[in-house]
C-alpha cells in the first residue's frame, strides 16, 4: 500500500467563492466519542410498534458496533440501517434516535479547531454559507445548540435528499439554497472521503480536513486542498464589487 508524507507547509493563498458549504461532524465538530457511545448504549424504544424492546443498538442489528462505526462516518444513519436492518430504516426512527445524541452526550463532543472563529466571521459579514450534513435535522440543531456555534440561514440535512453522500444531490441542493447556479464556484469543506466525492461530483472545489481520516484517503477522494483543520481556513472578506467570499488557505498539504 502506498503512503503519503504529511507535509502541511503550503504558503498562504487567497481564493474567491460564491458560497461555502460545510459538512458538520468531523468538519465543524468532533462527536466521535458521542457516536461510539450511541452505537453501544441502550437506546430508547423504537418508534415502530414491532420494535419496542430497547437494547444495545449493535446487538439489535446483530452486528458488532465496531463494524458499524468503521463504515458509518459520513453516511446517513438511514443508509447504514438499510444494510443491517431495513425495518428500522425510516425517518421517524432515525430522527428519534439521533435527536437524543446531543442531549445525552453533549459533553463528549468538541469543536474542530478554527471552526468557531470561521463561522462567527462568516455570520457577522452575512456571507453566503450553509451546512450540508448526513445527520438529521434534530441531530444538527441539537449539536449547534449544545456547542453554541453560529447557525446558518440555509442548510441541507439527511431528510432533504433521496440519496446520501457520495451522491452529489446534497451539495447540489446546498448550492441551490444559497441561490447559486451550476456555474457559480462554491467551496465545500469536508472530512470524509464520501463527502469529498460528493462535493467534487457536484462541481465544487473541496477542502479536505484530516480530522477523521488518513491524508491518503482524502487525497484519493479528490480534494483540491488538504489541511489539518479549520485553523488553515480564514475568511478575508466579501468583495464589494461582485460579492464573492474571499478565503485564505494556509498550511496546506504539499504534494
Account of the 3D structure:
It contains ten helices and eleven strands. A hairpin with a 6-residue loop joins strand 10 and strand 11 (about 245-250). The model is unreliable at about 40-55 (pLDDT under 50). It has helices spanning about 30-40, 55-60, 65-70, 75-85, 90-105, 115-125, 135-145, 170-175, 195-200, 215-220, and strands spanning about 15, 20, 30, 110, 130, 155, 185-190, 205-210, 225, 235-240, 245-250. It starts with 12 loop residues before the first strand and ends in a 6-residue tail after the last strand. The longest helix is centred in the middle third of the chain and has 15 residues, at about 90-105. Helix 1 (about 30-40) packs antiparallel against helix 3. A six-stranded parallel sheet has the order 6-5-2-7-8-9, covered by helices on one side. A three-stranded antiparallel sheet has the order 1-11-10. By secondary structure, it is of the alpha/beta class.
